[in-house]
Amino acid sequence: MAYESLQLDGPVGKSLVRVSGREKVTGSATFTAEWPIENLLHCVAVPATVAHGTIDSIDTSEAASMPGVRLIITPENVPKIKQVQSGSETNFKTSISSKLYPASENEIFFAGQYVAAVVAESFESARDAALAVKVNYQIKPHTTDIDDAPADERPDSVMGAPAVISIGDADAALDKAAIKVDHQYPLIGNHHNPIEPHATIAHWSTQNNKPFLTVYDASQSLPIAQASLVKVFGLDPKQVRVICKYVGGAFGSKGLMWPQALVACFASKMTGQPVKCVVTRRQMYGGTGHRTPIRQRVAIGCDESGKIQSVIHEGYASTAIKDTYTEAFTMATRMMLQTQNLRLSQKHCRLNTQIPTFMRAPAETPGMFALESAVDEMAVKLNMDPIEFRRINEPEKDIHQDKPFSSRLLMECYDRGAKRFNWSKRNKQPRQTHDGDWLIGHGVASATYPYLTFPTKVELTWKSDGTVNIKCCTHEIGTGIRTAAGQLLADMLGIPASRVSMEIGDTDLPPGGVTGGSATTASVGGAIRLALEKLKKRLIELAPEGSPIAGVEAENIRLRNGKLIAGENAESAMLAVEDLLSAAMKDRVSAIGDFKGPKDSPTSNHSFGATFVEVAVDETLGLVRVRRMLGCYACGTILNARTGRSQFIGGLIFGVGHALQEATHWDHRLGRITNDNLAEYHVPVNADIPDLDVMWIDTPDFNASPIGAKGIGEIGITGVAAAIANAVYNATGKRIRSLPITPEKVMA
């Protein structure tokens, strides 16, 4: 269904400063571990040091005798709770990360699994006592290397689609194709490393003679966390409240509740006091999810004119022994290129690791690296500009869904970006451009991300002082939702954004969806639009007989500048909302909008973009430096130019790390991560990042979105790694098909 267009010509699109900025830079923003709770105890987990085995014994005698220790949780005394499926296996119907509950199992399936937890009067006491807990294991064989595990298991589905998609006969068409590209693109695993570690404070109390659980959790999914706690502890929703006002970075890692959340709940229940459990940086590597390693093959066959005859994208990713997460790395390939013959196929293998999880653009980031690298390789074989190769193979519709696109401005992104980047002046032959000892190369790749929404409710309240309040249990993970939502509502009402406030981060508020999948702005915005229609009707109902708007149909009345206006011209009948509320002796009027999103959209809905990169390569040292990068995006209406630009730039920086630095390394003999710290897990720093240029095509998409806006939080990363790899090829003539692109690969 297409939505009626909105005329947004006020605050929307302006570079307003985010409303949370002052709180963050002054340190007054309260993050999860900072809530001032009285009588607070501290909990530190004891992680398994083996990758597979059974617990022979747990000796807690020394730890229990240490000063300040109040409780040690082990499988012998842990509360028994209801088993539920993990969120990855239920498409976010729960937010429990794993069926392996903390300190509840005698069998170990990965290093880092919580085998016990210590509760003490201070963090230091809990930490020291946790180190004193002695666990003896019977060690069993393990597998942590994706190349050593059999990939013989087919997932039930891949993001709601079959694990195998076949259109035409891709294998036969590839065999007949005049020109072929057929390669493997292996990817190593990654970890999220948000600034704020995972943290939970749990407090069991009594309200109305019933147990009541209050949880402060660093979360991207508060309403689902609440529902999950209700299930596992057998409570009523009115007995559980979950709060998170600010998240210090997430990138997918806080979409689910990791074991520290449940262990804090256990500890509070057993001690009768509030308990805080903050995960250490090292424990974040073993216990809170990661981007899975992937082995993928992409094959493209073309005729001599460059028209694609066949596309094959297949491979496998890892998941855990006891839990299943499916990384949908073939998903974008369904609709990126025009072909009559397409085959997509995914399997997974099981490793002795914590369950993988969502990480910024979880399907597109790995999948688009392989696809867009192969596209560039084909353009080179054809001696064709890679942009022109994409142009002649641009699809007219989504061939998988057999639907038209709601909007697809990919080639416009390429054209505008190429002009600004001076793409036409590059030397398309490798090894031809130098700057001293450095080889200079240029690369380009497509970016895409699907338009997603989640069911969301919003309550709007118009107060007699002329201010309007938004209430929604959504999350501030750094994207600026309070700012963007306020701008949107202010524009729809024709009032200054300063008159709009927003309350978030508390399950006592109307439930929002997961803050992930680049879905929050459109979901909250859709609910705001519905709530505003209801609010207008309620205000009209308050109008007394004989008022300027009496007798006028609701659809012919507008809410602008604090007034109900009947008519379109300067002499239109008007009634100030403040006067209306005063006459009705009310100090406020409220309405709730319930946005469920499109059930079956007639269009295929995605954002698109193009990423341009210039690199310098020192072959002697194997160094790769990004010198210039530009992203041009088509994501519908951009509500706030400042925060929008920040999101795009953040994605580009994340992509540089993914392409050149980030890698989780294992000692597969022990089944343990060797670089589980920020000194050895390399991420970009300021010296690695040049000035970044972003631009966008600000064209609303009301075919997909009720506010014309689509997601921007994840698309920025999706084309970066391929664009960098393609630029490295242009510089050196060496095609590097695995990430990260490290010095030894450049020098090989």
UniProtKB/TrEMBL annotation:
Pfam families: Ald_Xan_dh_C, MoCoBD_1, MoCoBD_2. Gene3D superfamilies: Aldehyde oxidase/xanthine dehydrogenase, a/b hammerhead, Aldehyde oxidase/xanthine dehydrogenase, molybdopterin binding domain. SUPFAM superfamilies: CO dehydrogenase molybdoprotein N-domain-like, Molybdenum cofactor-binding domain. It is an enzyme of class 1 (oxidoreductase). InterPro entries: Ald_Oxase/Xan_DH_a/b, Ald_Oxase/Xan_DH_a/b_sf, Ald_Oxase/xanthine_DH-like, AldOxase/xan_DH_MoCoBD1, AldOxase/xan_DH_MoCoBD2, AldOxase/xan_DH_Mopterin-bd_sf. Keywords: Molybdenum, Oxidoreductase. Its EC number is 1.17.1.4. SMART domains: Ald_Xan_dh_C. Residues 26-141 form the Aldehyde oxidase/xanthine dehydrogenase a/b hammerhead domain. One of its GO terms (molecular function) is iron ion binding. PANTHER family: ALDEHYDE OXIDASE 1-RELATED (PTHR11908:SF132), XANTHINE DEHYDROGENASE (PTHR11908). This is Xanthine dehydrogenase molybdenum-binding subunit. It comes from Neorhodopirellula pilleata. The lineage of its organism: Bacteria, Pseudomonadati, Planctomycetota, Planctomycetia, Pirellulales.
